[in-house]
Structure formats: structure tokens, C-alpha cells
Amino acid sequence: MEGGSERISQLEESQGPLICGIPDDIALFCLARVPRKYHTVLKCVCRRWRDLVCNAEWHAYRGKHNLSETWIYALCRDKFERICCYVLDPDSSRRSWKLIQGLPPRCLKRKGIGFEALGKKLYLLGGCGWSEDATDEAYCYDISSNSWTEAASLSTARCYFACEVLDGRIYAIGGLGSKLSDPHSWDTFDPHKNSWESHSDGNVIPDVEDSIVLDGKIYIRCGASSVSSHVYAVLYEPSNGTWQHADADMVSGWRGPAVVVDGTLYVLDQSSGTRLMMWQKDKRVWVAVGRLSALLTRPPCRLVATGKRIFIIGKGLSTVVFDIDKTGNMEGVLVSSSIPRINSEDDIISCKCVAL
To answer: Which end of the chain has fewer CB within 10 Å, C or N?
Structure first.
């Protein structure tokens, strides 16, 4: 009888009103305005609140009413050669990186792993190891429930490949694969079908250095060769599903990690010091925004942006932040703020933003 009473109580709790005496739509109006940093507390109040915070309705409601808050997620590799993941609330009064627990054990030692964000989920894709060929395995981290699960496998086993999101789909492009894999292929993930579809094009670059989405197109860059300083890139045109050679003038200055802010491409040039460069597509020239203090940046770095702010994240998660609209220079050095690094020498692999 006690077990039955407990199940009935849980059922009533899950089906009861969000807040007693208040219609659910009004309760949702109130609860959705609670800052994201307190969502963990909301989930502890009762089963109904926990289910609400974890479901798609909550995510959609906050997005529709401009209540979403964007946090930054960084995939790193620690001194033991294991991958690890950190999260940063960029608007917190005490900004600091926090470690995410519970990464899938099978992928901890893999290299060349893909990292992408779609909706309220993060994906770890593919990868390989010293004694392990490229894999098609995929794992998913649900931000709202703070849980890792296995995801739909890639169509093609691959590592050291490009990952981008375009039109609500994940693209896994190029890279190295198994002996049976087509090096000039790419996979697309449709979250509504929860499945991947494979494609092939001779222009796809297997040797991937970096990737961006600009003007509704995916750009893939390979590195300069040891015998030439020429930088090569291709772009994906979604209107006809083909890959083409990218504009040589734009690609010529793409010599470091890149990020797109309001349709403008920024690149961190780390070849001599650390300079932030901007591509002016109307004039077809690269211009220097400014250089960054060597005391704050710890290359190699990756870039990510939220709104008009660019975050330059380096070794040990040392982070430099500057606002494009408030860009200032002192003797050529960009005026910026910084976030203290963690007490480690972790290398940054990739960083993504998730709004919730």
C-alpha cells in the first residue's frame, strides 16, 4: 500500500498546477523570468517544476520572449590527455569557468573529436585514438537536465573534421576517416528525424584547419603547406548543395581562429604577436582592429562570440573579452577585460554557445 500511495502522490505532483491557485500560463510567465543560474534550484522544488525546466516548451518560451541567456561551453584537453568540458556564464558578476562532470568515459582519450551545439544540446562526435580507428559514435549533453546520453551515430566514421550548424542541422565535414570512408564526404544531422545523411563532393577538403558560417554559407579552411604560404578554402552553397572555391582575397587573411559577429568575419592572427583582424567585404580588404596584450592571451586560442562581445580563450582557459561597439585602443593595444584562468594548463579544443 505504501508503494502505491507513493506512486499516486508522484502522479498527482506531476499533473498538478505549477503554482497553486494560479493558471499554468501565468505561472510559466513568472517562472520563465527566473535567471538561468537559478534553474538548478527550480528543478529541486518539485517534480512538475523539474519537468518544466527540462522540456522543450521551457526552452522555446524563453527564446520566443527574449529571455534566453547565452552561456559558453569549452571543450579542452588536460595534462593527462583526457578531454574535459567547462561552462562560463559571461554575465555573472563573478565570472569563472566551471567543470562539467560525467563526460562519456569511452571518448575521454579520443583526439580529433567534433564539438557542436544545436538547440539546448551539445554533441561530441567521432574522434579516434592511438589504438582506435576513427569512430562514428556520438554523445549528447542536454543542458537543461545536465545529463549525457548516446546520440545517433554519424553516417561516416571520422576524426579531425569540421563541425558547423546551418539551417537547424549539424554538418560534419571532411577530416580523416576509416579506410572505407570517403575523404571528400560530409554528413548532416536532422534533429527532427534523429538521423544522419551522408553526401559526397570532390571539392570537400579532408585536411581541415578551421570552419565558419558566413552569409548563410559554410566555409572550410585548410592550413598553409610547408612549401607555400597559400591558404586554401572552400564554401558550401546550401541553395544547390555543392562545394565551391572560396574567395581568394578573403581567405588570404584567414590565418588563425575565426568568429563571425553580425555578419562580419574576425580572425585572430597569432603569427607575430596576437592581432585581431577584420574582413571588410565591401572594400575587400583585411584591417587590423588592434593587438592584444601578451600578458593576457595564452596561445593557441579559440574565439567565440555572444552578442557584440568576442571571447578569446587560450591555454588554461585564460579569457580576454572585448565589446566591438566599445572597442578602444591604448598605444595600439585593445582595451579589454579578462577572466582568470583555471589552475591548470588545459588546451582549448573548441568553444560553443548555448542559449537557454
So the answer is: N
